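Entry 12.
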Amino acid sequence: MESLALFSTTTTFTSPHRYPSRRALLKSTPSISLSLTPRSTNALRSPAPSPTPFFISPLRFSHFKTKPFLSPPKSSQNQTQTSSDKNPNPSPAASIQGAKLLPLAISVAVGLIVRFLVPKPVEVSLQAWQLLSIFLSTITGLVLGPLPGGACSFIALTTSVVTKTLTFSAAFSAFTSDVIWLIVISFFFARGFVKTGLGDRIATYFVKWLGKSTLGLSYGLTISETLIAPAMPSTTARAGGVFLPIIQSLSLSSGSRPSDPSSKKLGAYLVQSQFQSAGNSSALFLTAAAQNLLCLKLAEELGVKIASPWVSWFKAASLPAIASLLATPFILYKIFPPEIKDTPDAPAMATKKLDQMGPVTRNEWVMVGTMLLAVSLWVSGDALGIASVVTAMIGLSILLLLGVLDWDDCLTEKSAWDTLAWFAVLVGMAGQLTNLGIVTWMSNCVAKSLQSFSLSWPAAFCVLQAAYFFIHYLFASQTGHVGALYSAFLAMHLASGVPGVLAALALAYNTNLFGALTHYSSGQAAVYYGAGYIELPDVFKVGFIMAVINAVIWGVVGTFWWKFLGLY
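Predicted 3D structure (tokens):
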């Protein structure tokens, strides 16, 4: 990914309300190995496992191994050290294990207060109210992070079984969900892109073709991510495994260094542009992000069935998403301008990189063929009677049979298995809350409140969408936000008279767009902020401005486009 190889970035802060300093971020244990140091020769080494907080773990790709954008001198020595290398004898305080007491106490207290102090509505059964208290306690724990997300979820699952709130089979029912397994397999697809170097090659070609100016370079990176997105279902993997290392190399070659005033020469703009564009790339395709699949699964549980989901999703998203993708680099070029306007050396660097990579390898061709097959089956799966998860299983089987991936690759993709654990628990609880009538009760209460203001369904739609979007300031995971609130907000839309498919899709698109609000709002946010090129005030300021601009583009373009498609 870059000649000026790597230094690892990570975010290990445990609460979205505790903003770490840049220095703390850059010194923390890596969960995505990326390098910046000019003398490092071991790009993207697999780090030792570390307890990563909930909001990073579902989208964490901790074993990226890719080639640097340009090869460093052979005499270079790796000068990076982990904190454990520097301090072989940690203090007793540093070695304390187990849950963090204050976040744990708050999480438990939330559940106990709801269960025993808040009066139970007469419309709600005792079982449903008890499950709601466990669910709210779990969400609080996932946000505050007394333990990693998987551990919090498992303890919640145990609590629901021990208290006989749920039977064992009901508690574990979501572990057989086709959507959960589709998300798990998507992690393995993303690993294949990174392992073969295919994503890196595609992005480098666009740098070669469009990289003569800074604005052209930004558009080249944005377009390449959009093309990769439907077959690489993780924005975090695309950020950490493909685009950030290329941006780092281009920036350093132009004298733009992280955590330095020179960052504004080039690096800050490229990082912001790619970061803000990523949400629209993920919103454009159903298979571009894990949370998209979950949204449609939860919508189906509430009776909102979308025919030909891949095609329907793309059709509805296409015009507003493409408009936002085209506008974002240009708008940022004006409101967050780079000091360097022209990058005449970028195409030459890309050409040199492609020469070093050599011709397309057999494994890259296999990856291309497998992804084309997968996307084709996702598009036509309904007509052929092939479910999306079966398509993913076929694709993974091909990659294993032909040696592009081996089973060790799958076993060491810890984020996939961690996601299976905590995500299935969260989805299972949300489903049981729906079955027990909690979601319907909550949505009816909100709908009555909105009706008291005599709001029409379009007005209610705007209020609920805005609330769903900006409440993400309190969350640090897109998938966690979906698991906690998507069903409830969709039910509120339905109770307010909003057409079901329109409400389901709009909430799902918003789930991608709010991933760039803050430095903790998504996995890719942690990756891009941790690189050191953008300052915290700029993240919040640009994140809010672009959120408003995206809302205007999607609102105006979407209003006419969705009317044309017959969504309302």
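Annotation: The chain has 24 helices and no strands. Residues 536-565 form the longest helix (30 residues).
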